[in-house]
What we know:
By secondary structure, the chain is an alpha/beta fold. The chain is 26% helix and 29% strand.
Amino acid sequence: MNKKKKPVLQQVAVEDYAAEGKALSKIDGKVIFIEGAVPGDVVDVQLSKSKKEWGEGKAIHFHSLSPDRVTPFCEHFGVCGGCKWQMLPYEKQLQYKENEVTQNLKRIGKVQLPPIQPIIGCTETARYRNKLEFTFSNRRYLLPSEIAAAKEATIDQENALGFHVPRLFDKVIDINTCHLMAEPVNAIKNTIREYAKENNLTFYDIRFHHGWLRTLIVRVATTGEVMVNVCFGYEDEKERVRLFDHLLKQVPGITTLLYTINPKKNDTIYDLEPKAYFGKGYIIETLEKLQFKIGPKSFFQTNTRQAERLYQVTRDLACLTGNETVYDLYCGTGSIGLFVSDKAKKIIGVETVQEAITDAWENAALNHIEHAKFFAGDVIDVCTSEFFELHGKPDVVITDPPRAGMHEKLVRKILETEAPLVVYVSCNPATQARDLNLLDEKYEVTYVQPVDMFPHTHHIENVAQLKLKG
C-alpha cells in the first residue's frame, strides 16, 4: 500500500512579484511562484508543483509580515478571488504592474524601447466597475472556520448568491457586501436573496443542473441609470412577477429590469433573448461627449472613467489631424473608433461578434457620426488586400485584441499594408510583447503607456505606439 506523500514545506523570504499576481522567491536556485504572499513576507511554502527550474506553492504559515502590508477592506478577502492585492498599498500595486509591463516587453518583445511612461492609476480604487455578475447556488461555500466549529455535526448546505470559489466550479461564496461597484448593486443582490429565501424559491444546482434562480447581472452607468438582468432556469411567470414587483418597490433606483430564460447547462446568454419587464431594455453610458447604448448583451469596458482615460491616450498616440483613414481592429461596439472619430476622416471597424457590430452602428447613429463603418467577421478573414483597397489604405491602425493577442496572419497583413502608424492597446502585455517582436520587422516602438484599469488585481492594460521604420 502506497503511503500518501506529506506536503513539502519550505521557509522562504519573498523577494518580488511575478506575472499573474503571484509572489516570487527562490529555493536552491529554483524560482518559486507563491500564492497568498507579498514581497517582504517570510513564509512557509507548501509546494504544489516542483519542476526542474521552477515550482508553485501556497503560503501556509507566516513567520513575519512585510512592512508594506495594509489591512484588506473587504470581509471576503482571502476567500473570494476577485481582489487579490487588497493587502498591498495602491502605490505598490502600480509599481509592480509597471514592472510587469517593462519585464514583458524586454524579455519577450526583445525590441528597442523608448522610456516607458509612468503608469496611469485610477482615481477611484473601489466601486469602479460598471458591471458585475453574481451566481445563485444551492451549494454555499463553507469557510474552514465554520467546518471546524461544527466538528462532527452535519452542516446543511445553504443557498448562496455571490461569486464562484476559485477552482471549485460548483461552490459559491455568499457575498454580503461587494466593494467593486457603487450602489444600488448590494441592495439589489441582498433584496433578491432575502426574498428568495423567505419564499422558498429554488437556487440553481450547478452540478446537477436544476433550479429556478441562476444568475444576476447588474450594470450601473455614470449617468445614474441601472440595468438588472435576472436569469432563470425556466419560466415561472407568477413567481417572476412577484419577485420583480418586490424588487422594484424595495430598490426604486432600477431604471431597466430584464429577465432571461436559460435552460442550457452553461450560463452564457449571448445565444438567448433577454426580455424587458420594466424600463426601455437598455441604459445610456457616456465617454466625454459621446453616448453609448448598452443592452443586456453589449460589451463595454467595465471601468468607465478609466476607459475614458485609456481612449484619450489612444487618441493622443494616433496623432490624428482630420485627414486619416483609421482602421479599428477588434473594435467591439466601436467605442475606440467612435471616440477618435472627430479627429479622423474615416473610421473602419472590424469585429467578430455580429451583435457588437450592430451596437456599433447604433452608437454611431446615436452620436450622428456618419463617417464610421463597421464590419462583422474574423479580423484575419475580413482584412484582405481587397478590403483595404475598397475602403482605403490605412493611415492609422488601432488594434485592441483579446488576451491571446493578434493572430500572426493579421500581424503579417499589417506589415504588408505598411500603415504609417499603429496604436496597439493590450490587456495582456505578454502577448503584446510577442506581437511587437513580429512587428519589429518594419515598425519601431516609439511610445509605451501602461494604464491601470483594475485596482487590487494583477491585470494591467498597456498602449504602445509604433511607427513605420524609415
